[in-house]
Amino acid sequence: MNNNLYKYILGIADNSLILGQRLGELTGHGPSLETDIACTNISLDLFGQVRSYFQYAAKIAGDQRTEDDIAMLRKEREYVNVLLVEQPNRNFAYTMARQFLFDVYHLLFLQELQKSKDLTLVAIANKSIKEVSYHLRFSTDWIKRLGDGTEESKAKMQDAIDGLWTYTDELFHQTEADKVMVQEGIGVDVTGLKEAYYEKVNAVLEEATLEIPESKWFQKGGKQGIHTEHLGYLLAELQYMQSAYPNMEW
Amino acid sequence: MTTEQNIDDILIPILEKVSDPEIPVLSIMDMGVVRKAVIENKMVKVQITPTYSGCPAMDVIGDDIKAALKTAGYDSEIELILAPAWTTDWITPRGRKALEDYGIAAPLDAEADKSVLLEGKKMVKCPQCGSTNTRLVSQFGSTACKAQFQCDDCQEPFDYFKCLK
Question: Is the ipTM of this complex over 0.90?
Answer without folding.
Answer: no
